[in-house]
UniProtKB/TrEMBL annotation:
Its EC number is 1.1.1.49. Signal peptide: none annotated. This is Glucose-6-phosphate dehydrogenase. One of its GO terms (molecular function) is glucose-6-phosphate dehydrogenase activity. Pathway: Carbohydrate degradation; pentose phosphate pathway; D-ribulose 5-phosphate from D-glucose 6-phosphate (oxidative stage): step 1/3. GO terms for biological process: glucose metabolic process; pentose-phosphate shunt, oxidative branch. InterPro entries: G6P_DH (IPR001282), G6P_DH_C (IPR022675), G6P_DH_NAD-bd (IPR022674), NAD(P)-bd_dom_sf (IPR036291). PANTHER family: GLUCOSE-6-PHOSPHATE 1-DEHYDROGENASE, GLUCOSE-6-PHOSPHATE 1-DEHYDROGENASE G6PD. Residues 175-455 form the Glucose-6-phosphate dehydrogenase C-terminal domain. It is an enzyme of class 1 (oxidoreductase). GO terms for cellular component: cytosol. Residues 9-171 form the Glucose-6-phosphate dehydrogenase NAD-binding domain.
Amino acid sequence: MSRDTTLLILGASGDLTSRLLLPAIGQLLRREPARRLALHGAGSDDWSAQRWQEAVQTAFTSADAATQLDRVAGTTYTKADVTDRDALAGLVEGVEGPLVIYFALPPAVAVAACQVLRDVKLPENTVLALEKPFGSDQKSARELNDLLQQLVPEKRIFRVDHFLGRSTLLNVIGVRFANRLVEPVWSADHVQSVLIRYDESLALENRARYYDRAGAMIDMIQSHLLQVLAILAMEQPADLDEIDLRDAMAAALRATVIWDDNPVRSSRRGRYTAGTIGDKEHRRDVPSYVDEDGVDPDLGTETLAEITCEVRTARWAGVPFTLRSGKALADRHAEIVVTFRPVRHIPEGLTGRPDDGGVLRFVLGPDRIDLELNVNGGDDPFALRRDVLSTKLGKGTLLAYTEVISDILDGDVALSVRADAAEQCWRIIQPVRDAWNRGDVPIEDYPAGSTGPKGWATSA
Ligand code: NDP
């Protein structure tokens, strides 16, 4: 008889669990009535069973989930210090059937819990799911990989990257590889530059405890945006499976370095000052980052980061890939912008010579593609102007975390970050971190609600 899968969330009273994991579990159970799942939570807060059930039901009641608690095949909450061997053993030993342990914990606590797991007898086929940031530099990421691989084989380790989500990722891959209009021009011969941008209009939102130690570079660029770069730059995988796809992505990351090997000229960092975000109806006054609750100004944390990389392969050498992400900006911009080189020659007589040979823009969530073309026509057929062809890419209704959890429960690691790729992402950004730590790259101020510090390539 097949057993129910047990999902054990460590850090169950935290933000990730209530805001992202539980609604996703609810959505998954509503969509897949046949799926059987026991859901257990453990955390340092002293919650009663009733408080936990209320938290789960509240999340399940959200519009995306709209399901009932009784869809879960049993649920409990245990107050436990998960860095304590006996407490952790009590949670996992004796679980029958497949067990997934989800570490929804502060990163250092997750590492401590993994160390303790060495002395715990894990049920057969246990799966481990870890959140970003994975380690704090290349060495610690390697040590964490070694530790995890002592516990379970690589194919049962999920380094979660919810940002990509299955549908967004596959949308980019499909457009890239399935169009003769795109695939043959996907190289330095035709592409002038690539921008991967994730600007948020949200400010700190009470997340100082985590964010003030991470900053924009580690929160977004080191983890999520470098994975996007890997997808854009990789060679075509024979199959979108855990071997070929992850081999191709890891190879792209191995070839990636900071542009010109010059982290000072190829990176920028900014920090928001007080300002106002939004239009008349939705105005929010935001304090300076350094005045936000829980922020230690001495840490010098950046809230906006930009780096430029080169993928040193025959396909991409010479093309700048700029990765940028920040908080408290005027608008949300989650996009990949591929700018093509100008054509070699334009007939005499056409006016308004464009600076580039067109732009392909992937807008992320809800996913859309804009193809900016140089066109003529109309009253003055000799004048070139810009027009945009725009199309929505499928109407995905799944939450990104629903896709993540579904993959974890199904044991499909294709879209989780492989051990070597996680280490490469730290290797790529280390020269920039060193330059920043030496003070070689000053922090530039920008008012909350603006497009960023003046003079940045990607600020208006
Ligand atoms: P929180 O601090 O909100 O939650 C962590 C939880 O772990 C808290 O409930 C905390 O309890 C508990 N905890 C800490 N130490 C222990 C311990 N020794 N034993 C048991 N429980 C413990 O963090 P988040 O939920 O925001 O983040 C968790 C992970 O998810 C991080 O790695 C983060 O980077 C990642 N993540 C978070 C996202 C988000 O939007 N929140 C998005 C993407 C990733 P207490 O409060 O009592 O210390």
